[in-house]
Amino acid sequence: MNKYRTHNCGELTKKNNNKDIILSGWINKKRDHGNLLFIDLRDNYGITQCVIDKSNEYFVKLEKIQLESVIKILGKVVERSKDTINLELKTGEIEVVIDSFELLGHCKELPMPVFSDQEYSEEIRLKYRFLDLRRKKIHENIILRSKVISFIRKEMSELGFLEFQTPILTSSSPEGARDFLVPSRLNPGKFYALPQAPQQFKQLIMVSGFDKYFQIAPCFRDEDARADRSPGEFYQLDLEMSFVEQEDIFKVVEKLMVSLFKKFSSKKIINNKFPRISYKDSMLKYGTDKPDLRNPLLIYDLTNIFTREDVKFEIFKKLVKSGSKVRAIVTKNTKDKPRSFFDNIDKWAKDQGASGLAYFTIENANEISAKGPVGKFFSIEALKEIMKITGASIGDSLFFTCGKIKDVETISSIARQKIAYDLDLIDNNSFGFCWIVDYPMFELDENNKIKFSHNPFSMPQGDNDNINLKDPLNLKAYQYDIVCNGVELSSGAIRNHKPDLMYKLFSIAGYDKKQVDDKFRGMINALSYGAPPHGGIAPGIDRIVMLLANEKNIREVTMFPMNQNAQDLMMNAPSEVSEGQLKELSLSLKNKK
């Protein structure tokens, strides 16, 4: 018999009544009722209420022990009276009468309470993460994460995928985020890079003749932190398949996601077959390639309306002449909303750095008209044309924004979400998945130079043997993102497995053949020895769990996260290293100012 426990703190019931038991755990709470001392004993599995009478020789010692100390108790299970049953606990029908106890681990004064989920500063929570992880909500989030990963592994195996591990020390990549570099002791002056993703290796696995691969892969990117992105490292379900087209990838991922989200959440999935939305349509209708499909509001292009003679809104007309675009959001049946509702949206837009949102409401007393600050600038015919384009009806309102295309997309996207939340249109009890497809192969950077827009190893769409490379900005790729509730879960692509075509595409982005051979020697060499058509994707584990746990910050589902400055406050990393360590690596540091 285990000397520390006969049962855990989450399993005792009425069936154990009158049994002698041993429990071990942390003191979650104490309640002193004078003659009786109640102790809530907690372990990984739950909480059991224990009680000791003042006549017991151990009463005074237990009374003085600090919360979160670890103790072992010996006692007897008794049923609670009906009026003291706690339905919130699995063990709520019983309590344990303590005969004796043993202190296993003393706890000094706590920097933060564990028995509540009260908010504390990030610095305290991360410095004492081992205490933070004892708290109920985050403890359950981490358990959920483990169960999600186990479920994914089981499902992937049943789908015929084999799990392989790829190297952590690899070469630096010229594309993507900043690498984490590791100096080589045996090769002075040279560096490994931690993998931003197992991209090249998983393609090499396909070239090696394996058909379906997956792993729960650690990835490392030297990026700034965001609510949905950890600085430093993250985990993804990395998968790759041979002899597939785009739809084959979609079928596998949709099956997995539907099973996964139904298993771990009671929320409904809006579409079991995820909608396919082109990148172009997504940017127009939602202002982003990460649309929240729980939101029914759409964005419309009304640029041409402001070229009409019977529209007198001169500010927008001048901007349109200089190349600006106009986007509008329609809100249904908002004619009875007070003026303050519209003015608050306008003010909010200005607070976001935009020039505001013009608006009006469509009315029809004797004839169609527009009520609002800018309504007078639109003729009846112009209003009819707006209604035709947007599907707006009498009683609906429109919010307008005008500016450079990227600025217009940004403000209209966040305004769409803001307005929907203010009108309570978001269904928080659902998951809205979609695929964003048909990404452009190339785009212009801030210096007007052509660069890859997504993944340089993607297969362009069209006849690959006779592809037109004269107009690269109109070239689309077999690249796709999976999005849920406005959160990008993953990017993926059908890969370019033809070396000659790869050289041509890289040349458009400014890489000559030698540079490609130097940077991607292993990949190019392997593809020249008979590579199958293949493709894959890599949904983020952290973001999946974040959605399932209904958390807004990824740190709430990560066991030991860094802070916003990429520091581990608990382990004091990054830290300085000794001169001896630097010398071994043939490195020296510049003097700090």
Sum this structure up briefly:
The chain is an alpha+beta fold and 593 residues long.
Describe this structure in words.
The chain is α+β, with helices and mostly antiparallel strands and 593 residues long. It is 27% helix and 24% strand. The radius of gyration is 30 Å and the shape is globular. The chain starts with 19 loop residues before the first strand and ends in a 9-residue tail after the last helix. The mean pLDDT is 94.
Question: Secondary structure elements and their pairing?
Answer:
Elements: E1 20-32, E2 36-43, E3 46-53, H1 59-64, E4 70-79, E5 94-105, H2 122-127, H3 129-132, H4 136-158, E6 162-163, E7 181-183, E8 191-193, H5 199-207, E9 212-221, E10 232-242, H6 246-264, E11 268-269, E12 276-278, H7 279-285, E13 299-301, H8 314-321, E14 325-331, H9 339-351, E15 358-364, E16 368-371, H10 380-390, E17 397-403, H11 405-422, E18 430-431, E19 433-437, E20 442-444, E21 450-452, E22 479-484, E23 487-494, H12 499-508, H13 513-519, H14 521-527, E24 534-537, H15 541-548, H16 579-584
Parallel strand pairs: 3-5, 6-9, 11-18, 12-19
Antiparallel strand pairs: 1-2, 1-4, 2-3, 4-5, 7-8, 9-10, 10-24, 13-14, 14-17, 15-16, 15-17, 19-22, 20-21, 22-23, 23-24
Helix pairs in contact: 5-14, 13-14
| Largest sheet strand order | 6-9-10-24-23-22-19-12
Largest beta-sheet characterization: 8 strands, mixed
Mean pLDDT level: 94
Given helix and strand content, the structural type is alpha+beta
- Spans of at least 5 consecutive residues whose pLDDT stays below 50 are none
Instruction: Give the fraction of residues assigned to helices.
Output: 25-40%
The span between the termini is 62 Å
**Share of β-strand residues:** 15-25%
Q: Please state the overall shape, judged from the principal axes of the Cα atoms.
A: globular
Rg: 30 Å
Number of strands: 24
The number of helices is 16
